[in-house]
């Protein structure tokens, strides 16, 4: 054996998965809280107000035919990105695989692919301004330091989704000019955005396992549907930042603002009084319990 022969080259180290947001951070405190559910329609509507994102959702999404299932699957993903620990990165890769074939032409005649950084980053970015603005109503106004922490955690989630550092502003100070430029140059009242704030669209009733509940829904759905659509439009527009409302062309009156403040105050005061099993969604509640017990991985 020739002891002087060169050693075989070492295999490159396996790329480590990106780290999810830290336990006990801002996202851990708020994302799984039931109050955050009220902010999701505003973030989704702001996403689809981008011409390319709106075109992709219009052509490929099942949000019209299976809105409840789509919402449940989207919420499951969000919970995994924040509370999934070792599962977070795998869920991020799954989401990217689902978007590989989504491509077409947007309302301005431009070719798009859903994983183009300009589109993909905007989808992720929209949740941040909505969280900051709506949080003033539903949680409390955050400090400048907490806003920077929240944005740093938002970037962590972006890396789980496959966004590179160059795809998004890397500081909160750089984010706001980017956000305002997107509102001025890209955002418009797309077909899907208009549907999401309409109170006169077709909405399938939810599925139910119980035969009795299915019968009850069949009887009461016309009235429930009308009430739900009005409420959805109310929280969608109300919890959207005013500059985003203006970019999409959404109206908001002083009377609506007063109703939103009354509603938000009630939610902000009552939800913290609930036991944890009612205040937090199941995935968040389980992760928080494991973290307190020192067994979260």
Strand content: under 5%
The biggest sheet amounts to: 2 strands, antiparallel
Helix content: 55-70%
Strand count: 2
N to C succession of SSEs: HHHHHEEHHHHHHHHHH
Bulk shape: globular
Structural class: mainly alpha
Describe this structure in words.
This protein has helices at residues 26-30, 40-48, 51-60, 67-83, 87-98, 117-125, 127-138, 144-160, 172-185, 191-196, 211-238, 242-248, 254-270, 276-279, 282-293, and strands at 103-105, 111-113. The model is unreliable at 1-8 and 10-14 (pLDDT under 50). Strands 1-2 form a two-stranded antiparallel sheet. A hairpin with a 5-residue loop joins strand 1 (103-105) and strand 2 (111-113). It has 297 residues and is mainly α. Helix 2 packs antiparallel against helix 7, helix 2 (40-48) packs across helix 11 and helix 4 (67-83) packs parallel to helix 15 (282-293). It has one domain. The longest helix has 28 residues, at 211-238. It is globular and about 55 Å long. The chain has 15 helices and two strands.
Key terms:
297 residues, mainly alpha, two-stranded antiparallel ribbon, 15 helices, 2 strands, globular
Short synopsis of the structure:
The chain has 297 residues and is an all-alpha fold. The chain is built from 15 helices and two strands. Residues 1-8 and 10-14 have low confidence and may be disordered.
């Amino acid at each position: 054996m020739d002891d002087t022969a060169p050693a075989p080259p070492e295999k490159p180290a396996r790329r480590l998965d990106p780290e999810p947001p830290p336990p006990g951070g801002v996202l851990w405190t708020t994302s799984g809280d039931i109050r955050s559910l009220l902010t999701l329609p505003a973030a989704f509507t702001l996403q689809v107000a981008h011409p390319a994102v709106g075109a992709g959702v219009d052509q490929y999404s099942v949000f019209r035919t299976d809105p409840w299932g789509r919402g449940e699957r989207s919420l499951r993903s969000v919970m995994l990105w924040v509370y999934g620990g070792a599962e977070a990165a795998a869920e991020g890769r799954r989401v990217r695989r689902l978007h590989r074939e989504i491509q077409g032409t947007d309302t301005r005649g431009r070719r798009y692919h859903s994983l183009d950084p300009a589109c993909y980053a905007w989808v992720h970015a929209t949740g941040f301004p909505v969280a900051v603005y709506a949080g003033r109503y539903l949680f409390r106004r955050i400090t400048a330091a907490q806003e920077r922490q929240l944005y740093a955690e938002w970037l962590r989630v972006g890396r789980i989704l496959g966004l590179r550092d160059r795809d998004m502003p890397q500081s909160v100070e750089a984010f706001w000019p980017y956000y305002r430029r997107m509102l001025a140059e890209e955002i418009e009242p797309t077909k899907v955005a208009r549907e999401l704030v309409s109170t006169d669209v077709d909405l399938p009733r939810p599925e139910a396992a119980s035969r009795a509940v299915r019968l009850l829904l069949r009887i009461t759905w016309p009235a429930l549907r009308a009430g739900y659509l009005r409420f959805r439009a109310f929280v969608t527009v109300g919890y959207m930042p005013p500059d985003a409302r203006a970019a999409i062309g959404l109206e908001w009156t002083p009377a609506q603002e007063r109703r939103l403040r009354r509603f938000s105050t009630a939610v902000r005061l009552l939800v913290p009084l609930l036991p944890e099993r009612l205040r937090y969604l199941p995935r968040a509640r389980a992760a928080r319990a494991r973290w307190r017990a020192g067994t979260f991985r």
